Protein: EAL domain-containing protein
Amino acid sequence: MLNKEGESWSASFQGLTLRTALQPIYSISHKRIIGYEALIRAFDTDNSAVLPTHLFQLPSSDAENLLLDRLCRYLHIQNYSGIEDQLNWLFLNVSPRVVTTGSRADSFFGQLLQRTGLPPHRIVMEIVEQPTDDAERLKDTVSYYKKLGCLTAIDDFGAGHSNFERIWNLSPDIVKLDRTLLTRATDDHKARQILNGIVSLLHQSGCLALLEGVETHEQAMIAIDAGVDFVQGFYFQKPTTDLGEISQTPANFDDLLKDYKNRRAVSHDPAQQLQSFFSRIFTDVTEQLIQGHSLRNACSELLAHPAVSRSYLADHRGIQLEDTIISDSRARSLDPRFRPLESTTSADWFRQQYLRQALAHPGQLQVTAPYLCVTGAYMCVTLSLGFYQQGELRVLCCDILANATDTLATLKD
Structure:
């Protein structure tokens, strides 16, 4: 069913000609190609392209599904074996229907690798992220590929039926994040934070993260900032059936990372500005507290700043000592839906890093990254300063509204 076409191979299936298309996958840190995803391209007798969805609708039985799946993999491996690249991975899709209806041990695949001489450690088997009627069989099949020596990947994570339970059950080496996550992150800052959080969770789960569908420079910046390991998409290179030219067009990661570093330098300025701007005020507040002034009077200048939300005092155990002092501007905008969270007298903040850092480094003003404030479910940045009052270590804390643009503007006023 395979035919030699010049330097590459094609296959025939129900009157269609099948060819391999490869799309490079890049490591951001390595700044180079580390693998290729193999995609099937189908053509009719007039050499007109046929949609992949149409191709995979042709099989009318499990046996035909299995045949098409094996044929595609055979074609891809045969073509990849002829490429000069002897280092990088080949990402192969395996149909979930085939996984859950085929044999538990895909002995065909092991024989195929032996026949072509392609080492199993250069293969990444992609399992599409969707529900299955036989989770145990899926787990057994993934285990087989691992025992064979292949890497495994969950594909399209973040679309449809994605969940971390599958990550925990299958323990893939790589998780491919669906482009819908990137699309949302492009237009929604909150979605961008969620994407960053997902990548962090995947890393903590022992998985490398690959972001698909990168199509613009801005999306490349989002991918870099999210901390993903690998990227793939039209911005870097489209899939091509011209396999001889596939590795001849490297992406310019030097310029991308230079742009990212310049942006990060700017984005770090708010923290530095906050420290420099509020350092004197915090010193004045602590001196007044040491002299016996009330927290409200000592914080009057601090709370007058339009970026400041609230201020409070904690002891060496992280226990809040008295009521939180809320700025007038914040008091007028309190959301009544979160009223149960407003009172924080005797609250324990020790598990918050900003408090532990202030306790560990008295006299040094600490600044957090933006986070969700539990007292009102709004994004804030917390400043904290450890100081001694009558021999007791105290921590003065102040929440700043985390809208970086507005904060910078107010600091300049």
